[in-house]
Write a structure and sequence with these properties.
three-stranded antiparallel β-sheet, nine-stranded mixed β-sheet, 3 domains, 16 strands, alpha+beta
Length: 466
């Protein structure tokens, strides 16, 4: 039996850091320039709590069905590591912001043990190697103090697929709450605790990207299974996932909670979560993904599986779909093309809908061209491969490829019949597949401009005289 629990660290959207007024816009800045005495732990520096983060964290707690603490305070999590110059991280331990929640996935509820607010450490840059064999390590404190929530689950996952579904759904919730930006560097990182029956619990630290979470867990399950099969002991430890080798390696023997020496943060007060604040949060709550999936099915009459793909893939994709429907009232047609072709081409080009050059106007003009018979769906499947990365309109692509030139379809069909005598003979002997071959040859010669139904009728008419 496999048991997996997650600790998910999420950067929250904010203009300033958690305990100071430094900007959170640190990406691309010179190392150690977006800092102040509070980030760097200078003696005498005093943190001040960014209360906007409390509201964002409360929205997350509400969305994950948690019990919210009436009061909360911060603690110092002590550890000696270069990414924390003051040698402790301001976090929560004794009383977290929220507890005892859950998130429903396909076949079960995944319990949420706790949600807490904390600051991010600095960034370590391993030069000339990985975390285990670098020649030396540089430290950039620009990220130090970025506001985060940590979401800790119970060990309720039994498969890697359940983990992937949970993370996809969680990310969708965070995006709909507008508290998190997936485009930011390391904006969502996962620590995974995994154990097999008969073995100790192993933690894999700081995994970024859902695909890497799957690979790390899959590798670790096999590694632990092999150890237990050989009668060897699985030791409790912390491991690192190497994205290049797709393997995990030992970092250190696992600490216990007591090793961190939690103490109350004396420079920050206790905070009361008032009824008025919770009522304000309730009013701010947007439509969440599950409700949006249901509404898409009821309002637009699209299949539930398509609705789930559109909503859970990316909030921006769900927004894109609704914008398209406003421009072109064919929701089923739009949904089908998004799920079967647009997403495929986006993935092939390693793009999201935000990063692509496809706009709702561009996409609906493309779909209207097919709906009105200007181009065939077969040709559309080829043109979309260029439309997505270039942002060119369907009219530009047709002109570029000279697809607007008049084609004498009868002449093309006659030539194809003359050039493919064996297929003609096979068709006359009753082989229906032969006519599909002939249709394909005509489409190849016309660069998929022709309508396959019209081509079939024309071929059948011509073959009556052979």
């Amino acid at each position: 039996m496999v048991m997996i629990g997650l600790e998910i660290h999420v950067h929250l959207i904010s203009k300033s850091k958690l305990f100071c007024s430094c900007s959170t816009d640190y990406e691309g800045k010179e190392p150690n320039t977006n800092v102040c005495p509070i980030d760097l732990g200078f003696p005498g520096s005093k943190p001040q709590f960014n209360k906007k983060i409390l509201e964002s964290a409360l929205m997350i707690a509400k969305a994950l069905n948690c019990e919210i603490s009436p009061v909360m305070f911060f603690s110092r999590k002590s550890y000696f590591y270069p990414d924390m110059p003051k040698n402790f991280q301001i976090s929560q331990y004794e009383i977290p912001l929220a507890r005892n929640g859950y998130l429903q996935i396909t076949n079960k509820k995944i319990r949420i043990r706790r949600i807490q607010i904390e600051e991010d450490p600095g960034k370590l840059v391993h030069v000339g190697g990985s975390i285990t064999n670098a020649q030396y390590v540089l430290v950039d404190y620009n990220r130090s103090g970025i506001p985060m929530v940590e979401i800790v689950t119970e060990p309720d996952f039994e498969t890697v697929q359940e983990v992937r579904e949970f993370l996809s759904k969680l990310q969708s919730i965070l995006e709909h709450l507008e508290v998190y930006d997936p485009a930011r560097e390391a904006s969502l990182r996962v620590d995974s605790n995994i154990s097999l029956e008969g073995g100790a619990r192993v933690e894999i630290k700081n995994i970024t990207g859902f695909a890497n979470v799957e690979k790390a867990l899959s590798y670790e399950i096999v590694r632990q299974q092999n150890l237990l099969r050989m009668g060897m002991k699985v030791e409790r430890e912390t491991r690192h996932f190497d994205e290049i080798t797709k393997t995990t390696t030992t970092l250190r023997k696992k600490e216990t909670e007591e090793d961190y020496g939690y103490i109350f943060e004396p420079d920050l007060p206790q905070f009361t979560i008032s009824t008025q604040l919770l009522q304000k949060i309730e009013k701010q709550m947007p439509e969440l993904p599950d409700a949006r999936v249901k509404r898409f099915v009821e309002e637009y009459q699209i299949p539930e599986n398509q609705s789930q793909i559109i909503v859970y893939t990316d909030k921006a994709l769900a927004d894109f779909f609704e914008s398209c429907v406003k421009l072109f009232d064919r929701p089923k047609f739009i949904s089908r093309w998004i799920v079967t072709d647009l997403l495929k081409v986006l993935n092939w080009n390693d793009l999201t809908i935000r990063k692509s050059k496809v706009t709702p106007k561009l996409f609906t003009e493309f779909l209207k061209a097919m709906d009105e018979g200007e181009i065939t769906e077969r040709l559309g499947k080829e043109l979309i491969k260029e439309l997505v990365p270039t942002g060119k309109s369907v009219k530009e692509l047709i002109k570029e490829k000279e697809l607007d030139k008049k084609i004498d379809l009868e002449t093309v069909v006659r030539d194809v019949i003359k050039e493919n005598k064996k297929a003609v003979e096979d068709y006359k002997k009753g082989n229906e597949k032969a006519i599909q071959f002939l249709i394909g040859q005509v489409l190849r010669k016309t660069r998929a401009v022709g309508d396959p139904k019209k081509i079939k009728n024309l071929i059948e008419r011509k073959l009556k005289y052979y």
